[in-house]
Specification:
InterPro entries: NEUT/ALK_ceramidase_N. This is Neutral/alkaline non-lysosomal ceramidase N-terminal domain-containing protein. Pfam families: Ceramidase_alk. This protein is an alpha+beta fold and 520 residues long. It folds into two domains: 322 residues, no CATH class; 169 residues, no CATH class. Helices cover 18% and strands 24% of the residues. Strands 1, 2, 6, 7, 8, 9, 11, 12 and 14 form a nine-stranded mixed β-sheet that branches. Strands 16, 17, 18, 19 and 21 form a five-stranded mixed β-sheet that branches. A hairpin with a 2-residue loop joins strand 18 and strand 19. Helix 1 packs across helix 2 and helix 4 packs across helix 5. The longest helix has 20 residues. 52% of the residues are buried.
Length: 520
């Protein structure tokens, strides 16, 4: 089932300082379908047809047994489109320093489960293997909590191990097939299909592109980094706005969301594949309660949504078409901004560093879930007393690739922690709060130095949910819990705290990142 979509590569005898070696592969990690309702009678499973609400045929049995949806309503019954492990390996031929960047069309993964993959390729001596989940709520459960209500871990172990081993095999394939390549970069911005649903209203709307090109001009892959929840069909998950006949499918669909269309449109526009990396999705960067439209019909996708007439009939929201439009527009925006015409980077090099971070596990529900074995597939190690004061160890990493830096963050970091507070935040505080009565405001809202202010490179990429998943990363100044039932109930507009390891997550992680980027 785990078919390899390999980029065919070639070699040359010598390298200039604007060349490194790059290999790229995609591994199909879609759970294999055994039985389904063959409604069109063609003898093959039919995926979603690309229309707004077609989910694909109903699955009655997977080869590996029951597959739960990561953040859905239990068991998966539909596969809208395939999910992949997208893998890029970069090697500096001058030093043989190398890194791998893995983007999984999945919900999130724990550190120990990422380490399982890394251990399978440790003989290749990578400086770092960044294992990132795009955070598709509609991927198979890779965290485990979907089974908690049935007092079991929700991960399908047979499929999960295939996914891990298939990804490790893909890393080896990418390394073996690496080719001399040049890199070009572009940084721009996009808020098309992006909404902030928690105060303060701050966006990390940076849209970053890195394009890998062979010396003959052939594009191998375009890496795209932006920040948004990827499943535009979340209304199906919540049952909101869904038409009749769809609601019974709510939360039972597997789909990668818009990253599938980043790949699709990259192939059409640039050639080669498209690889999506998610960034600061906390706080909450989402497609909920917003809309998109067919670009330039008649409005530019750069038009703010508040400028779109309320009676405009071309609004598209809460369906598969929204995912397609957003994914395609990310590539189209990079194309309009001339990524393909950017000069190739010179003096290319590769380096990576990792810093371990120890954080107190304050969340009592997380503590119980870990004790019961409901979080992660393999067992996670802790320090201290799980019935008293316990600590988990996570990690942050820095990757340098020529004029670009990549910061690997182990959770759903809030935008105010990556880009900082706007210059007029204190002088015009009111415009950043829709519900100021529920939050610290003005001078009481203070955050540490932002991640991107620490980074020194021209091109700054943030890889969220990389190598671990410790939950939302909420600034301590606005970290509020319910007084009666902390970690269970939440004050208005403070849900994210209940899905965090605790108030120390941000200071500890930011301290670790500061150590990595302390070369100013």
């Amino acid at each position: 089932m785990y078919k390899l979509a390999l980029v065919l590569l070639f070699t040359v005898a010598t390298y200039a300082n604007d060349l490194i070696e790059v290999g790229y592969v995609q591994i199909d990690i879609t759970p294999e379908i055994a039985e389904w309702v063959d409604s069109d009678g063609n003898g093959e499973y039919t995926f979603g047809d690309g229309s707004a609400y077609d989910t694909g045929e109903k699955v009655t049995k997977f080869v590996d047994g029951k597959i739960n949806v990561g953040n859905g309503n239990g068991e998966a019954h539909y596969v809208h489109d395939r999910i992949y492990s997208r893998i890029m390996v970069l090697n500096d031929p001058a030093t043989n320093k190398r890194v791998a960047i893995v983007s999984l069309d999945l919900y999130m993964m724990q550190l120990q489960d990422c380490n399982f993959i890394r251990n399978l390729v440790k003989d290749l001596s990578f400086e770092h293997v960044a294992i990132h989940s795009t955070h598709s709520h509609m991927g198979p459960d890779t965290l485990g909590r979907s089974g908690a209500k049935n007092l079991e871990n929700g991960i399908n172990g047979a499929w999960f191990r295939k996914m891990q081993r298939g990804t490790a095999k893909g890393i080896r394939e990418a390394f073996a097939k690496r080719t001399p390549a040049k890199l070009r970069f572009l940084g721009t911005k996009s808020r098309f299909g992006l909404n902030d649903t928690r105060d303060p209203i701050i966006y990390d709307d940076d849209l970053m592109g890195m394009q890998v090109v062979k010396p003959n001009g052939e594009v191998v892959v375009t890496l795209v980094q932006w920040a948004n929840h990827v499943e535009a069909i979340l209304s199906l998950h919540n049952g909101n706005n869904a038409p009749d006949g769809i609601k019974e499918k709510t939360g039972h669909i597997i789909t990668p969301g818009f990253p599938a269309f980043v790949d699709y449109q990259a192939q059409k526009t640039f050639g080669g594949h498209g690889m999506f990396i998610n960034g600061a999705v906390g706080g909450l960067m989402t497609m909920l309660r917003t809309f998109v439209w067919e670009p330039f019909a008649p409005y530019s996708p750069d038009t703010p949504v508040e400028k779109i007439p309320k009676d405009f009939e071309g609004k598209i929201h809460d369906n598969f078409k929204m995912a397609e439009i957003i994914g395609c527009e990310l590539i189209n925006k990079l194309h309009r901004e001339k990524l393909q015409d950017q000069p190739f980077a010179e003096n290319l090099f590769i380096s990576a560093q990792t810093e371990k971070v120890k954080i107190q596990l304050e969340n009592d529900l997380f503590r119980l879930a870990f004790l019961a074995g409901f979080i992660g597939f393999d067992k996670r190690d802790f320090e201290g007393d799980m019935m008293g004061k316990a600590f988990l160890t996570t990690q942050v990493s820095r990757i340098d690739i020529g004029p670009a830096q990549f910061a690997c963050v182990p959770g759903e970091i809030f935008p105010e922690l990556t880009v900082g507070l706007p210059r007029d935040f204190y002088s015009k505080n009111g415009k950043y709060f829709k519900e100021p009565e529920h939050h610290k405001t003005g001078g009481d809202f203070v955050v540490p130095p932002s991640l991107k202010s620490m980074m020194t490179a021209k091109y700054k990429f943030v890889i969220g949910l990389s190598d671990d998943s410790i939950g939302y990363m909420v600034a301590p100044c606005d970290f509020l819990l319910d007084e009666m039932l902390p970690w269970v109930e939440s004050p208005p507009d403070h849900y994210e705290e209940t899905q965090s390891v605790g108030i120390q997550a941000v200071p500890k992680v930011m301290e670790g990142l500061s150590k990595l980027f302390s070369d100013k």
